[in-house]
Specification:
The protein has about 650 residues and is an alpha/beta fold. It is built from 23 helices and 27 strands. The strands form 6 sheets. The protein has a 7-stranded mixed beta barrel. It has a 6-stranded mixed β-sheet with strand order 7-6-3-4-5-20. Helix 6 (about 170-180) runs parallel beside helix 7 (about 205-210) and helix 10 (about 300-310) packs parallel to helix 13. The longest helix has 16 residues, at about 70-85. The structure holds alpha-methylisocitric acid and iron/sulfur cluster (SF4). Iron/sulfur cluster binds near residues 296 and 377.
Length: about 650
């Protein structure tokens, strides 16, 4: 039987295991990317492994922690620059742009396996790379030449037919996927797009779709590499890196979905979840206080140009503030040279630097109770920096129409859509990308560490028994933004685990850190899709520092599950989902003979000493994951020679 694209790429990179859905396999990694909010920790861990030089193409980006309200962020940038020089990585300087947008423009290669310490790494799937997000430690291991272990996903073929109608955007395709499948609909799956509708989508449009595929919980999403890809690479001066990638004629999928592009209309995700999707017309007229254009989902040259065309000669509504963050220096400079930036400035948009910015709460928080319409990918409670803000996610077209009218607006009401041309040649100037130094000069580089950079705390091996209180019980779809918030105040502490641990779960319960310390650690109980969202390993590392021993939930999101294992926290799922009701916050739990259960069984007994009862939990773990947990985490496991 013919192979789909996912199978083709995995097969080419397979170093261990079999390509059977649900089984563990190890794959060779061609490229890694890190960003500054996860990268400092990743490079500290790489240093701790004692390897002299990165073993694959590695790019270290600075794009998240860009506000310099104190010495912490600039110190981290300096550390990252020196670490890149020392270990042989490319360094993308602050101002060069958002990691995913820049990587797509300058580094991504069809058919490659790309690993990134950021959950939106799947953006690379827009040009046919199998690009996955992972915790920083997994990325550090890959930089050291180790393979990446995946649970082989089921491959879902998404057949696109027809063509988008005017004012309907690529963003509406991924919002439609989220409407149909929900934020947990993609767990354990790769979405492979195919069919006649694919041809009409440019690479940046495809990248919008694969980027936000992360919100489905998917391992990644993938587009073919075809004549559109070839043109994009040529326009980026990289024609030589093109290779064709298509599914075989007789390729089959584990599941299939069809989307008729002609039938789509502008959509919007309402607060507070990316899958709370309705047609824009259902919320049309809702007064908006803010519009933000940008983020790794929608900050391409096309995205900015269409917004500029809509705003040209007009003024942003007086009740509303608008910001625009270009995705890269390339986008910014091109939009500046051809007048798009001027048109937006004239209309009253506030042009920010090329960075994540408002998407991660690095400034531009909405007003109290404010409605903010954003072209971003996440609208979890409080992520914008304002706890009671109402964030809506939409396309640049809908955002621009909303900015003009001051209320949520279906862009189709703007009349004829202006034509926006795809450039035949992008502006090429990599002067903000520092290439790796040769090994001889690299050896002389001194790594520069600021006072906020603290060593990675490590745990001992798994104890015989785990006992303690349920420190917190939460419901479904708890995101890493709930577990460890980001934003301008907390992000600068990413290199300092003792300091950042003071914010664990504070968005859910202010008293969590104090309680965890007072009780000497304990357990967290949760519902479905626990840990969805970002790849930040700090959401495992900081709770581990506070003494979190095990997390018992109905189901996990992929990256967070791996991060818990990497830092020695036992990830357990209820054998019977109803047992979730049998445990309350404050109950005292006990798990005995943990190492021997890890050695053998798939089930483990969790005693509830308060209720005088017990529930059974599943250890859905591979042999390697069990060994990592026994060793107390991936770093001690790797140091002891584990592969
Ligand atoms: C995000 O969008 O939540 C982030 C910030 O980019 C994270 C990474 C981080 O927390 O540093 C992600 O998506 O992985
Ligand atoms: Fe940056 Fe937002 Fe993209 Fe995360 S989702 S990488 S914060 S732009």
């Amino acid at each position: 039987m013919g192979m789909n694209m996912t199978k083709k790429i995995l097969k080419e990179h397979l170093v261990k295991g079999r390509l059977r859905a649900g089984e563990e396999a190890a794959v060779r990694v061609d490229q890694v990317l890190t960003q500054d909010a996860t990268g400092t920790m990743a490079y500290l861990q790489f240093e701790a492994m004692g390897i002299d030089r990165v073993q694959c193409l590695a790019v270290s980006y600075v794009d998240h922690n860009m506000l310099q309200t104190g010495f912490e962020n600039p110190d981290d940038h300096r550390y990252l620059q020196s670490a890149a020089a020392k270990f042989g990585a490319y360094f993308s300087r602050p101002g060069n742009g958002i990691c995913h947008q820049v990587h797509l423009e300058r580094f991504g290669v069809p058919g490659a396996i790309q690993l990134g310490s950021d959950s939106h790494t799947p953006t690379g799937g827009g040009l046919g790379a199998l690009a996955m997000g992972a915790g920083g430690l997994d990325v550090a291991v890959a930089m050291g030449g180790g393979p990446y272990y995946i649970t082989v996903p089921r491959v879902v073929g998404v057949k696109l037919v027809g063509e988008l109608r005017p004012w309907v955007a690529a963003k509406d395709i991924i919002l439609e996927m989220l409407r149909r499948l929900s934020v947990k609909g993609g767990v354990g799956k790769i979405f492979e797009y195919f069919g006649p509708g694919v041809e009409s989508l440019s690479v940046p449009e495809r990248a919008t779709i694969t980027n936000m595929g992360a919100e489905l919980g998917a391992t990644t999403s993938l587009f073919p590499s075809d004549s559109v890809t070839k043109r994009f690479l040529k326009a980026q001066g990289r024609a030589g890196q093109y290779r064709s990638l298509k599914p075989s004629k007789s390729a089959s999928y584990d599941e299939e979905i069809e989307i008729d592009l002609d039938a789509l209309e502008p959509l919007v995700a309402k607060p507070h979840s990316p899958d709370n999707v309705v047609p824009v017309r259902e919320v049309e007229g809702l007064r908006a206080d803010q519009v933000c254009v940008g983020s790794c989902t929608n900050s391409s040259y096309y995205d900015l140009t269409i917004v500029a065309e809509v705003l040209k000669g007009k003024t942003v509504a007086p009740n509303l503030n608008m910001t625009v963050s270009p995705g890269s220096k390339q986008v910014y400079e091109m939009a500046a040279r051809d007048g798009a930036i001027a048109a937006m400035i004239a209309a009253g948009a506030r042009i920010l630097e090329s960075a994540c910015g408002p998407c991660i709460g690095m400034g531009q928080a909405p007003p109290s109770g404010g409605v903010s319409v954003r072209t971003f990918n996440r609208n979890f409670v409080g992520r914008s920096g304002t706890a009671d803000a109402q964030v809506y996610l939409a396309s640049p077209e809908t955002a621009a129409a909303t900015a003009l009218r001051g209320a949520i607006t279906d862009p189709r009401s703007l009349g004829e859509k202006p034509a926006v041309k795809t450039p035949r040649k992008f502006l090429l100037n990599d002067n903000l990308i520092l290439p790796p130094a040769d090994p001889e000069s690299a050896a002389k580089v001194e790594i520069v560490r600021g006072p906020n950079i603290k060593p990675v705390p490590l745990k001992g091996s798994m104890p015989d028994e785990l006992a303690g209180e349920v420190l917190l019980k939460v419901g479904d779809n708890i995101s890493t933004d709930h577990i460890l918030p980001a934003g301008s105040k907390i992000l600068p502490l990413r290199s300092n685990i003792p300091a950042i641990s003071e914010y664990v779960f504070t968005r859910v319960d202010e008293s969590f850190p104090a309680r965890a310390r007072e009780k000497g650690g304990g357990f967290v109980v949760g519902g479905e899709n626990y840990g969805q969202g970002s790849s930040r390993e700090h959401a495992a590392l900081a709770p581990s520092y506070l003494g979190l021993k095990a997390v018992l939930v109905k189901s996990f999101a992929r990256i967070h599950f791996n991060n818990l294992i990497n830092f020695g926290i036992l990830p357990l799922t209820f054998a019977k989902a109803d047992d979730y009701e049998k445990i309350e916050q404050g109950d005292s739990l006990e798990i005995l003979s943990v190492p021997s259960c890890l050695a053998a069984g798939d089930l483990i007994e969790v005693k509830n000493r308060t209720k005088g009862a017990a529930v059974r939990a599943r250890l859905a773990l591979t042999g390697r994951q069990r060994a990592i947990l026994k060793a107390g985490g991936l770093l001690p496991y790797t140091k002891a020679g584990g592969k």
